[in-house]
Backbone:
């Protein structure tokens, strides 16, 4: 079957679907499925805009609300993951995944589904070491910190995905797996984006958590976005035994939706011709969710996932064939995901703008139904309970309770990713500086149709086969820059003021006299990333 893969669409759904229709008319190519690798921006109304981590001047309604309201319907089944520029309050309603509009499905914080026999997995958000070991504690209305931490990857999602044993056909992440640039045309990448050089040479570009998943899952395809450049790589994995067949992953990163043709790619994927056309649950993934349900954490307490280090009674949460069979029996062998989309918020009305609409914490009926069906914890319900209990106990008592951690995990263990990055000098490129004055990023919609003289290139050119080196294994040195962590904690003196946040910017922690130079460095780097349109004209 033909699968279309898109990079960051930034809410420009009309343009994305128009491009697909143009391909069909001019080249007789019609995809069966569309995958989007984050920064989807499922914005329903003005309140959602205020929950999106971008400067106020880039908060545009775009066109998703038309699909949410039913005015339009996606012409092709669309499956997406979250990035770092999303209506976080909306996606938070669906931690296990669900429909954000008819025919548009969100994979959740992490998820695996099936379509026509093809197994598709993904993880939402981007990696930040200082939030990696926390629970999903954020809820709207967000403050200066939580509006960003809400989209940071957590170790529990990586842990769940690492319990999978069956092969994955396609996997999506927003940020790139760290070190993947060593398996493609690195010279050409640095020619196009020279400001990546420091991070590439120091091997700090990308996510160590995604790299760990790549090494464990070994999917046939891995798609990413985030860095706004098209890049292909081919990685052959090392085998664990002589009996194990060699596996390889084709990696492709897509550009953002701009008036050029690198934000969309069409690939042919082998599928089961006898499978139906409905999106389906994955039985092994459901079994893993059930097995790891007691690990759910909705506090800011940092802890590591169970591992075989003598501190945990159980560390292997992978599931047996019997557990998978039980899931199938629960569903009467009908894995079809119900089309149970429900409106949970007012839809934007251009004739009646409501600029003062406030975001609220909502429990989505889809999540309620899903959790009830499989006996899972509704994360948002747990968060609301914690908030209500905290208001009764008082702040001091609540903090004491948050120090207690489930016996299956430990808050005292060191992180698997070292968070002491004082010795690193490079700036983490995976986090976009939200500086309103600098105008670091352009989230404007596509405004130019694809040129009929330059149809999209459907074939990704992969590099020569290379063996994964030991450097791909995540170590304690795989850490992100503490300068960026400090910037996030500070809120920044130049941060755009937003009344919806209801909090004053936090002061910088520590006595770093060179903090301003760090801000300028991030700004220069991101100005280079988001000058893609002008750069394309000169290349």
Residues:
């Amino acid at each position: 079957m033909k699968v279309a893969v898109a990079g960051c669409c930034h809410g420009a759904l009309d343009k994305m679907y128009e491009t697909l229709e143009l391909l069909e008319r001019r080249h007789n190519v019609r995809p069966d499925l569309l995958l989007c690798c984050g920064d989807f921006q499922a914005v329903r109304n003005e309140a959602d805009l205020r929950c999106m981590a971008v400067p106020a001047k880039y908060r545009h309604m775009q066109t998703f609300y038309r699909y949410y309201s039913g005015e339009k319907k996606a012409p092709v089944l669309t499956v997406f993951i979250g990035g770092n520029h999303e209506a976080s309050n909306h996606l938070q309603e669906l931690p296990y995944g669900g429909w954000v509009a008819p025919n548009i499905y969100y994979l959740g914080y992490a998820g695996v589904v099936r379509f026509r026999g093809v197994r598709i997995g993904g993880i939402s958000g981007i990696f930040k070491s200082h939030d990696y070991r926390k629970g999903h504690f954020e809820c709207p209305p967000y403050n200066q910190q939580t509006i960003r931490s809400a989209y940071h990857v957590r170790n529990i999602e990586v842990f769940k995905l690492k319990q999978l044993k069956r092969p994955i056909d396609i996997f999506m992440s927003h940020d790139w797996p760290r070190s993947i640039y060593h398996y493609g045309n690195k010279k050409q990448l640095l020619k196009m984006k020279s400001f990546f050089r420091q991070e590439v040479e120091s091997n700090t570009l990308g996510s160590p958590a995604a790299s760990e998943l790549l090494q464990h899952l070994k999917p046939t395809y891995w798609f990413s976005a985030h860095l706004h450049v098209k890049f292909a790589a081919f990685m052959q994995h090392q085998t664990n035994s002589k009996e194990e067949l060699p596996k390889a992953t084709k990696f492709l990163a897509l550009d953002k939706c701009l008036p050029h043709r690198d934000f969309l790619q069409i690939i042919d994927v082998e599928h089961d011709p006898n499978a139906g056309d409905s999106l389906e649950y994955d039985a092994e993934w459901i079994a893993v969710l059930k097995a790891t349900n007691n690990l759910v954490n909705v506090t800011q307490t940092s802890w590591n996932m169970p591992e075989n280090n003598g501190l945990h009674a159980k560390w292997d949460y992978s599931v047996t064939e019997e557990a998978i069979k039980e899931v199938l029996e629960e569903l009467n062998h009908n894995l079809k995901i119900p089309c149970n989309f429900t409106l949970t918020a007012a839809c934007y009305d251009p004739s009646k703008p409501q600029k003062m609409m406030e975001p609220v914490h909502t429990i989505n009926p889809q999540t309620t139904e899903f959790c009830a069906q499989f006996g899972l914890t509704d994360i948002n319900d747990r968060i609301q309970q914690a908030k209500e209990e905290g208001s009764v106990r008082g702040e001091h008592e609540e903090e004491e309770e948050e120090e207690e951690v489930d016996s299956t995990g430990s808050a005292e263990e060191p992180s698997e990713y070292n968070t002491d990055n004082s010795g690193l000098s490079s700036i983490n490129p995976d986090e976009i500086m939200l500086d309103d004055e600098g105008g670091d990023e352009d989230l404007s919609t596509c405004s130019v149709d694809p040129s009929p003289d330059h149809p999209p290139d459907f074939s990704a050119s992969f590099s020569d086969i290379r063996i994964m080196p030991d450097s791909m294994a995540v170590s304690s040195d795989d850490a992100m820059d503490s300068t960026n962590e400090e910037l996030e904690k500070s809120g920044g003196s130049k941060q755009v003021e937003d009344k919806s946040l209801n909090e004053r910017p936090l002061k910088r922690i520590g006595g770093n006299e060179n903090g301003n130079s760090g801000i300028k460095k991030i700004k220069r780097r991101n100005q280079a990333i988001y000058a893609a349109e002008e750069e394309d004209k000169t290349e």
